[in-house]
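Task card 7
Instruction: Convert sequence to structure tokens.
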Amino acid sequence: MTRSKKDIAYEYLRQRIISCELKPGDYLDEQEVAQSLGISRTPVREAVNRLAEEKLLQLMPRKGVVVSQLSVKDAFDMLETRQMVEPEILRKAFPNLDRESVTRYRDYVVSKIESKDATTEEVSRDFDFELHMYFAERTGNSCLVDIMKMLMTQNQRVRAVMASIRSERVRDACREHLTILDAILAGDEEKAVEAMRLHQANAIEDFRHHYRTRQAFFM
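Output:
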């Protein structure tokens, strides 16, 4: 299916924001974006409005468009919310998880652990986003899907800021994903839910201990 110009602009800007290529506080030149993409400013403006609704951009009267700031509190709030909701999302989704998809995710995690990719973030395929959204979508609850998309979008920005100094956390997260997926394939719901709870707790503790090294990115 052909993507609209608005969608092209949206995806282009969103990727640059969540990867921190466009850093918090950076101003956005809509005309420059339009020229880079070879489109008019109208679809760029529509994309900007959508990203503003998602709180990735801010429209500043008489100043222009700026990439939304990250705050330490917002990051902790996001991580805490994930810790509260994701174990229950996995529990609700568990009967609907299909073995083929889970096996495919597991194979990818194993290949990443066995390669140098286990210590890097891949912007081209955000596996973390894909996997956690898969669990949300399998709940069949559209509200949970919307909540998770918002949380994971915020999480992508935090991960992009932290990944360059926390390659160990990327590797550890891969192993935690593997534990979750192995429990699912074994049909052990309680073990999978507990592994998800531990995965989220570890993410909080890692951020708590290391965010100060990236203080310039946070309000």
